[in-house]
Structures are given as structure tokens and as C-alpha cells.
Fold this protein.
Amino acid sequence: MPTVRNGEVSLRYATAGEGPTVVFVNDVGLGAWYWSYLQPAIAGPYETIVWDLRGTGDSDAPDGPYAMTTLVEDLATVVAALEARRIHVVGAGLGGAIALEYARGNDNVASLALLGVAEGAAVDADRLASLAAPLDDPDALRESLSAGFTRSVPAEYPDEIERMANWRATDDADPDGHAAQRAAWREADLPDRYEVTTPTLLVSGAADRIVDPAATARLAADLPRGEHTRIEGGHLFPVSESQVVGDELRAWLDEQTESRLE
């Protein structure tokens, strides 16, 4: 899989599909597996780019804490390696904050889709931290997922939880990397969001215990071209509600692509 370098840090990314380019940006600590439930709904008519944040998966893991400006530079480095002149960006959690800050400083973003996103002060830091787990502890990798789902999901889908735990063991950030990425989200007050005139879809999980859906709605209201929708699910709703999110995202991307052709 290809890699690019931002200074001394190597960043791994992967592509799938053909068409307008959609770049996915991960939530805190989560590896590329996070998009495996959603990406198939987008790849095909769209070229999809999934990359590992520094500290995650096959990307380098320098010591933290990480700054938001650094993670935005990492995204810019990945985008620069692509042939696309215009991109759509889909970010979850921390990845949404990175995407929003990238769009503020770059005019190549055709649209944004932000999933479970709010400024750092609106994030429940303790619950977010509880998603971290040692990568060599299968039980902890399984149990820590409970903070991101509604309470019924782990009991109803034990095989999927086991599969996610196995992926996490190789793809996720370790607790130090998780903490380094959390630090970037904590500093994200998104002070210049009013400057972002990019069409932006914000989606929140109705039962999200990490990012209050009301905070996501407020962010949408603060953006000149922001739209907010709420669906079922906890913070990891792009996984548990992937079919619904996929339909919403595909319709959004199609609308934005068609509007540019008119």
C-alpha cells in the first residue's frame, strides 16, 4: 500500500473505486477497519481514500501529544499525493475536526460530511478515553467498544464485536497513540468555522455518549452551509448503523456531485 511522508513521519493510505475522490479521516485511535462497514457503499462510483492517522495502523507513531495543525498537515500531505483536483472529505469524530480545519485553509474541498463531530470542549473526555485499550489484550479490546455503542449492540452482535477486536489488535492506536490523538481534539475549538462555506452534512448518533448530538447540531447551525441530521446509534454509529449512514452519505455525495455539473 502506498505511503507519503510529512517530514519524518510516514503515512499509509489505500484507494478503492473510481470516480470523484472521497477522502475518509479516522476518529481517535481507530484504524482503517472503522470504514470497512461504510466504504463499500461509496467505493465504485467514487474513488475512496482511507489512511491511517499518525499513531495508528501502518503509519508512524511519533511521541505525542499531537497538535491539530499537525494532523491537518498530514491530511494535506495525503491529498497532495492524489491526482484529484477536487475532493469530498468524510470525517468521524476527531477526523471531522481535522476535515473542517483542512477545508478552512484549502479551496479544493467540494463537500464535507462530518460524523459525530463537535469542538473539543463538547466531547466527554473520560468516555472517549475509555475507548482505548492495550492492543495485546483481546478482552479489553472487546469491552472498551461498549463506550461507543448503544448498550444493546455488544449483546446482540457478539461475532461482530469479536471481529472488531481482532482488527483493533493490528489496526488501532495503542493507548499512548490514542492519548496523543485525543490531545489534538481537545484543542479543537474550531474558532474560524464561520469561514468554511463548503457544503457540509453533519450526522449525529441519537444515543452518542461521547459527543452530545446537540453540540453537533449547534456546529451545523454555525456553518453557513451546514445541514444536520440525527440517526439511531452511539458514537460508533457509522459502524452499527452503516447501512443508514451509507445511504445518507451516498445521497449527499451524489447531490454535491450533480450540483457541480449543473
